[in-house]
Design goal:
Layout: E1 14-16, E2 19-21, E3 27-29, E4 36-37, H1 53-64, H2 69-76, E5 83-87, E6 104-109, H3 112-121, E7 126-129, E8 142-148, H4 154-160, E9 161-172, H5 178-184, E10 201-214, H6 217-226, H7 235-242, E11 247-259
Parallel strand pairs: 4-7, 5-6, 5-8, 6-7, 8-9
Antiparallel strand pairs: 1-2, 2-3, 9-11, 10-11
Helix pairs in contact: 1-6
Bound molecules: S-adenosylmethionine (SAM) and zinc ion (ZN).
Length: 261
């Protein structure tokens, strides 16, 4: 049984060969890579919502080098239950690690290019294009909802979780990329670790902090492109970073576990 619902009328969607239909006859075809586009044209605020393709490529190259594998394993070890949904899954780097026998794993993102990449390389999870503000998924259907470095949508997160379900939310810690920030800025500031405002119950706060050795210039630049600093850094700071051939920097993550009563 699929947990997907029709983005037009919110009734359940059922697969018939390569088409998903609801009882009212709204129909959505699987793309050749195997994902479903459930984002209606009226829900798009731009022609290409979500992260830009060059950012997708930088993120894919950086993540596939394995620097964030400890974080992926840390989160995967905390995922439980039969039905898992990765909100704003990007190119599926984390989503793909959540698969386990007898578990249904779904991932969605508003950026179609990311969903296409995810679905091309990972056949164990099911990917769809959708926006956070109206997630086309049955209420009370998800055991673990994961959410890494993305906007938070409290009402929808609470709606899709089963009673007793878990939300795992990851945000950057105060020392995240500290040495990169020291290269970019005269006076770097630690990140504020502000937890999201939510009606879910915070059960646990954990930290994962370690150093990564970015051995190649390309890795340094890809990581920089993935950060918000890439569009708010003055030119001389950016030039200093671009001159580096390697960088050792701390990565610092806060993993919040929430429960739905
Ligand atoms: C920083 S990336 C994180 C991606 C992935 N979770 C990861 O850690 O690799 C944020 C993602 O949120 C997606 N996003 C932004 N706004 C969204 C929205 N309203 N609905 C769904 N996805 C959204 C972007 O397209 C992007 O892929
Ligand atoms: Zn419908």
């Amino acid at each position: 049984m699929s947990i997907l619902t029709c983005p037009v009328c919110a009734q359940p969607l059922q697969p018939h060969e390569r088409t998903y239909t609801c009882p009212s006859g709204h129909a959505f075809d699987l793309a050749k890579e195997g994902y479903l586009n459930l984002l209606l044209p009226t829900q798009r605020r731009s022609r290409h919502p979500g992260d830009a393709p060059e950012l997708c490529r930088a993120r894919r190259a950086f993540l596939s080098a394995g620097y964030y594998a400890p974080l992926r394993d840390f989160v995967a070890a905390r995922v439980c239950g039969e039905t898992v949904l990765d909100a704003c899954c990007g190119e599926g780097y984390y989503t793909s690690a959540f698969a386990a026998d007898g578990r249904a794993v779904y991932g969605f993102d508003i950026a179609k290019d990311m969903v296409r990449l995810a679905s091309k390389s990972d056949k164990r999870a099911f990917y769809f294009v959708a926006g956070l503000h109206s997630i086309p998924v049955e209420s009370g259907s998800v055991d673990t909802l994961t959410h890494l470095f993305a906007p938070f949508e409290d009402a929808e997160f609470r709606r899709v979780l089963k009673p007793g379900g878990t939300l795992l939310s990851v945000l950057p810690g105060e020392k995240h990329l500290w040495q990169m920030k020291e290269t970019l800025y005269e006076t770097p500031y630690p990140n504020r670790e502000t937890p999201p405002r939510t009606g879910l119950r915070l059960l646990k706060t954990e930290r994962l902090r370690y150093d990564v050795d970015l051995a190649a210039k390309e890795d340094v630049l890809n990581l920089f492109r993935m950060t918000p600093y890439s569009y708010k850094t003055a030119r001389d700071g950016e030039a200093k970073l671009c001159a580096l051939d390697s960088l050792r920097t701390t990565v610092d993550f806060v993993v919040l576990t929430y429960g739905k009563d």
